[in-house]
Design goal:
By secondary structure, the protein is α/β, with parallel strands linked by helices. Strand 3 and strand 4 form a beta hairpin. Strands 1, 2, 3, 4, 5, 6, 7, 8, 9 and 10 form a 10-stranded mixed sheet that branches. The chain folds into 2 domains: 176 residues, Rossmann fold, CATH 3.40.50; 125 residues, N-(1-d-carboxylethyl)-l-norvaline Dehydrogenase, domain 2, CATH 1.10.1040. Helix 6 packs across helix 9. The chain is built from 12 helices and 10 strands. InterPro entries: 6-PGluconate_DH-like_C_sf, 6PGD_dom2, ApbA, KPA_reductase, KPR-Related, KPR_N, NAD(P)-bd_dom_sf. Pfam families: ApbA (PF02558), ApbA_C (PF08546). It is an enzyme of class 1 (oxidoreductase). Its EC number is 1.1.1.169.
């Protein structure tokens, strides 16, 4: 397959390297110091699942790549619309653009820019980041990637992508029956983890050790699940207990990307996370007071960092 990785950061860089190692034609789209390092020294992945270094083309110009079978779309949610406007040179009639981003709105935003037929939903479960220009560090998580056509069909292109990802070393590939449900399922977890670590400025271990904080963590999950249910997404009540049990296994020093962005003066994905919950809740006439409180605490920081 010919693939482009639009946003070769922690998620995109990891997947791009694994696909290149499996023999596929991979092109990276990046910018700044990271792009310069990719062009001169290739991409190095330092991973708990095994290290690799790949020398693959990198550019900031989609036109230099041309049409692809698949585009892995891995930019921050606040960049979705602007980046989507640059996708045209990578598309032909059957190109799949797989969103592997935080939030539940990106697929709709992509569809509005490039047409729904191109868009494939995706969810990434991996703890990885750019540790330095040209280097992606995968420090934990299952490296599990869930994806599927928005209408649930088993198309030829999704079957081909599934075959490619399943064959990659260091990748747990899952073809979903209902990718919209999978998007909301992850949303339940990330809104709690991101919201609480950012609002308290503390790691998950200290949040777990505080009964009131751990209760708030749970309530954030319950509110997101309530919104999903009101929107017709089939998420059982047990999803909250399942995620809480999973969160008990997190390294006590774990934070979130939202906390990292807040504390490093970077633009935050607050609107794609808690802002999105509030907007969907209002449309569905669901009360989300805990989410509103976390959003209120973090909004001035998001404004400052913007």
């Amino acid at each position: 397959m010919k693939l482009a990785v639009f946003g070769a950061g922690g998620v995109g860089g990891y997947l791009g390297a694994r696909l290149a190692d499996a023999g596929h034609e991979v092109h990276l789209l990046a910018r700044g110091d990271h792009l310069a390092a990719l062009q001169t020294g290739g991409l190095r992945v330092e991973s708990v699942a095994g290290d690799t270094t790949v020398d693959i083309p990198a550019t900031d110009d989609p036109a230099a790549i041309g049409p692809c079978d698949v585009v892995l779309f891995c930019v921050k949610s606040y960049d979705t619309r602007e980046a989507a406007a640059d996708l045209e040179p990578l598309l032909d009639e059957h190109t799949a653009v797989v969103s592997l981003q935080n939030g539940v709105d990106n697929e709709q935003w992509l569809a509005e820019e490039i047409g729904r037929d191109h868009v494939v939903g995706g969810v990434a479960y991996i703890f990885s980041t750019i540790s330095e220009p040209g280097v992606v560090a995968h420090t934990g998580g299952p490296a599990r990637f869930v994806y599927g056509e928005l209408d649930g069909q088993r198309t030829a292109r999704i079957a081909e992508l599934d075959e490619a990802l399943t064959a990659c070393e260091g990748v747990e590939a899952v073809l979903a029956d209902d990718v919209r449900r999978e998007l909301w399922r992850k949303f339940v977890l990330i809104c709690a983890q991101a919201g609480m670590t950012a609002a308290t400025r503390l790691p998950i271990g200290e949040i777990r050790d505080s009964d009131p904080s751990w209760t708030t963590y749970r309530r954030l999950m319950e509110e997101v699940r309530s919104v999903a249910t009101a929107k017709g997404v089939d998420l059982p009540e047990s999803v909250v207990d399942e995620w809480l049990e999973f969160a008990e296994t997190f390294d006590p020093e774990m934070y979130s990307s939202l906390h990292y962005d807040l504390t490093h003066g970077k633009r935050m994905e607050l609107e794609a996370l808690h802002g999105s919950v509030i907007r969907h809740a209002a449309a569905a006439d669901v009360d989300v007071p805990t989410t509103e409180a976390v959003y209120g605490v973090l909004r001035p920081w998001a404004d400052r960092n913007a």
